[in-house]
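pipeline stage [seq->struct] | target=DUF937 domain-containing protein | organism=Rhodococcus rhodochrous J3 | residues=200
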Amino acid sequence: MASLDDLMSRIPVDQVAQRLGVDNATAETAVRAALPTLVGGLDANAQNPTGAASLLSALGKHSESNLAEGEVDVDGINTEDGDRIVSNVFGDKKDQVISTLGSVNGAGGNDLIAKVLPIIAPIVLSYLAKQIGGGAGTNTASAPQGGGLADLLGGLLKNAGGGSATSGGGIGDVLGSVLGGSSGGGLGGLLGGLLGGGKR
């Protein structure tokens, strides 16, 4: 079953750490902070028909990627593509999201978060493409206006945090469960106001 934990398990944190020149603990904290935020941003955009159509198109381009099969080679990830994904998801809120995530204790600061997001974004899209299309590409007919996609994204966040992903509280629950303590909730509240700033 698709879940944030399953998605997290497909990201080779040790390879991320090696590529970025940090220790595994720092890389894992950064990925665990960035991952639900990225999924939350995708979910916010999928609530809008135009955003959902744009996202489904992007998933189609990633449906045949070997990243969807769990065969992730971080050195082979196109971070320029990843950066485009991140920019499309967060729009003009991108820098604010990076700054907020960079303030998480142990996440390595803004510079590291800015490098982590483009690495994990193609992995996330390939994972979603696999879940939506069964590995054979996306079928937009099965997800009118992105409904199936929105359900999948909302389910990922709900399974992680026990709440709806459509509000700041939902993403706050997720981040709180991932990061622990009040910092996760406060971060989630702030990010909840930022999400949905991407392409529509």
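stage status: PASS
auto-comment: Residues 4-194 form one domain. Confidence is low (pLDDT under 50) at residues 135-146, 162-169.
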